[in-house]
């Protein structure tokens, strides 16, 4: 009995030490983290032959979105979804269904709340209409903010990707192979730019010309620097000039622009801090500093009266 308990105790201590080693050493080892990420991406990249059924909520939203006319704004809606990183086949219908659902939910909920609070029916209907309009345009605001966040991430990671692209081209890789290699290597630093570059490589492999694939990349991202990069690569391809030299010059200008944007943001920090300093911090300081003096002054005035 003592021998069995000793074995269990030793096994428990061994498992505890292994868990501590796993948490403190292996999870913080950059090589182990890199290998684990590569293994996860390799498993995720395996083709799946099972058709993934849409969720019931997405199917319901898509059914609701089918009632809205989208003929005139179909292109702008698709462009906005793509720039936000949403490329699903039924994404426009789901997005329109979300707009309808939020409009109905906000409008009916506000009317029910006014009825529960015994407010006038006319004001409740008017405020319910305003709430429905807010709910209808709320997904549009969310989509715009998501697209802007994604665009800023791509713009921030673009100079590093250009440096890698220059290294690959100067090492002897073709531009198409270099784009795919950079797309795979930059996945950990910027998944957004990685997916866009890999999509460019897939479009070129499927028969699309390089200039058309680059133009589609610029339209999908909406980043001005990618528009200029696309123009430079197309011009170098047509005129037969060195792509490596063009990329190196553009990468240097991109690094200068990124440094200038950082300096501009640093100079704006003082102006942005002025508003919370004046409206939030200074009133609290005045209350803390002048509050006791004001109370003492009030007591003195009461005594004299």
Low-confidence stretches: 42-53
Helical percentage: over 70%
H/E element order: HHHHHHHHHHH
Shape: flat
* Corresponding CATH architecture of the domain at 153-255: Up-down Bundle
Estimate what percentage of residues fall within beta strands.
Answer: under 5%
Q: Summarize the biggest pleated sheet.
A: none
Q: Would you mind describing this structure in some detail?
A:
The chain is mainly α. Among the domains are: 74-151, no CATH class; 153-255, Receptor-associated Protein (Up-down Bundle), CATH 1.20.81. The chain has 11 helices and no strands. The protein has helices at 2-24, 30-44, 56-65, 74-83, 91-116, 121-170, 175-185, 191-205, 210-221, 224-239, 243-304.
What keywords describe this structure?
single chain, 305 residues, mainly alpha, Receptor-associated Protein, 11 helices, 82% helix, 0% strand, flat
Write the layout of secondary structure elements.
Elements: H1 2-24, H2 30-44, H3 56-65, H4 74-83, H5 91-116, H6 121-170, H7 175-185, H8 191-205, H9 210-221, H10 224-239, H11 243-304
Helix pairs in contact: 3-5, 4-6, 5-6, 6-7, 6-11, 7-8, 8-9, 9-10, 10-11
Give the structure's gist in a few sentences.
With 305 residues, the chain is mainly alpha-helical. The chain has helices spanning 2-24, 30-44, 56-65, 74-83, 91-116, 121-170, 175-185, 191-205, 210-221, 224-239, 243-304. Among the domains are: 74-151, no CATH class; 153-255, Receptor-associated Protein (Up-down Bundle), CATH 1.20.81.
């Amino acid at each position: 009995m003592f021998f069995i308990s000793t074995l269990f105790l030793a096994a428990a201590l061994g498992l505890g030490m292994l868990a501590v080693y796993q948490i403190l050493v292996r999870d913080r080892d950059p090589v182990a983290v890199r290998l684990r990420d590569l293994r996860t991406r390799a498993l995720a990249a395996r083709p799946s032959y099972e058709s993934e059924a849409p969720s019931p909520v997405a199917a319901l939203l898509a059914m609701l979105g089918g009632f809205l006319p989208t003929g005139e704004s179909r292109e702008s809606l698709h462009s906005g979804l793509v720039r936000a990183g949403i490329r699903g086949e039924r994404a426009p219908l789901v997005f329109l269904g979300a707009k309808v659902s939020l409009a109905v939910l906000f409008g009916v909920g506000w009317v029910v709340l006014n009825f529960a609070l015994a407010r006038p029916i006319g004001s409740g209907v008017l405020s319910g209409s305003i709430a429905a309009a807010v709910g209808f345009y709320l997904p549009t605001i969310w989509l715009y903010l998501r697209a802007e966040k994604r665009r800023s991430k791509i713009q921030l990671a673009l100079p590093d990707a250009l440096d890698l692209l220059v290294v690959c081209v100067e090492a002897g890789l073709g531009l198409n192979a270099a784009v795919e290699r950079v797309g795979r290597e930059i996945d950990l630093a910027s998944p957004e730019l990685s997916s866009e570059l890999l999509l460019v490589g897939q479009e070129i492999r499927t028969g699309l010309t390089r200039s058309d694939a680059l133009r589609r990349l610029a339209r999908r991202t909406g980043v001005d620097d990618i528009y200029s990069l696309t123009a430079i690569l197309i011009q170098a391809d047509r005129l037969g000039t060195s792509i490596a030299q063009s990329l190196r010059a553009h990468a240097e200008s991109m690094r200068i622009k990124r440094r200038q944007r950082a300096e501009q943001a640093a100079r704006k920090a003082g102006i942005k801090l002025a508003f919370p300093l004046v409206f939030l911090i200074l009133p609290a300081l005045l209350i803390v500093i002048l509050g006791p003096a004001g109370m003492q002054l009030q007591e003195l005035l009461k005594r004299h009266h």
